[in-house]
Amino acid sequence: MASSALSFRSINYPVLDEQERLQRIVQFARVIATRRSVREFSAEPVPFELIDQAIAIANTAPSGANKQPWRFVVVENVELKRRLRIAAEKEEWEFYHNRATPEWLADILPLGTSWQKPYMESAPYLIIVFRQDYELRLGPDGTPCQHSNYQVNESVGIAVGFLLAALHVAGLATLVHTPSPMGFLVKELGRPANERPFAIIPVGYPAENAQAPDLVKKSLEDVRLRL
Ligand code: IYR
Fold first, then answer.
1. What residue ranges carry the coiled-coil annotation (predicted)?
2. Which candidate, 128, 133, 95, places its Cα nearest to that of 198?
């Protein structure tokens, strides 16, 4: 039987007065409300330390059975970004010309996207997020053994939410890009059989004149039900 070392320690939550709680949450609301999906990036270099800090924050996210079933592959190599752009554009060309339903194309029309993905090269970093459907660990006899992960999609989605918020707080622009299918990432990045691509996240400072579509969010009343 597997041994389980059960140990608990005190949590470290800030004790604040009501006014400060409200100030903090309103301040965060102001900051996060300015986040947009950005597709035009500046060539200005971004310190790798910011990327590392953001990934460290994502790595604190809750996950099914605390398995942390994620891997963040940071690509900054110009040649590799170029290869990934070419591979992504090949899939996207197929999507826009053959795979997407007319309804889907109509739904993304306001975003002004196309099969062309210059940001795959212009963003200083591409964070490629992989989900780990299981873990491979060496058993007592030295043979690799599969160990289950749980609620992998949910866990990785939450971690990516942390990541996007962290990068935004640092003034960095991001996009969640999911060309479909993303199998080319496994091959190009030499990932093992237990890792499947979840999303490509280009990261950098926004280009000086970067624009985003004038989208309207649903109102609080439309998304919140109070019982
Ligand atoms: N993957 C394509 C199409 C696309 C799909 C969705 I859902 C979007 O929200 C935006 C675009 C692309 O990246 O262009």
1. none
2. 128
Ligand 1: lining residues by beta carbon, under 6 Å = 92, 95, 108, 111, 113, 177-179
Estimate to the nearest angstrom the gap between the alpha carbon of 105 and the chain centroid.
23
CB 95 within 8 A of CB 179: yes
What topology is assigned to 37-206 in CATH? Answer: NADH Oxidase (3.40.109)
Residues of the chain with pLDDT under 70: 1-4
Q: Report whether 78 contacts 128 (CB < 8 A).
A: no
How far apart, in Å, are the Cα atoms of 107 and each of 112, 174, 215, 220?
11, 21, 12, 22
Whether the Cβ atoms of residue 123 and residue 204 lie closer than 8 Å to each other: yes
Q: Which of 84, 85, 95, 116 is nearest to 191 (CA)?
A: 84
Q: Measured between alpha carbons, how far is 157 from 204 in angstroms, rounded to an integer? A: 21
For residue 10, what are its two tokens? 């005190």
Q: Where are the domains of the chain?
A: 37-206
From 96, 97, 108, 175, give the residue whose CB has the most ligand 1 atoms within 8 Å, as the site to mutate.
108
Q: Which of 157, 149, 150, 148 lies closest to 199, judged by CA?
A: 157
Task: Please give the number of the atom of ligand 1 that sits closest to the Cα of 111.
Answer: 10
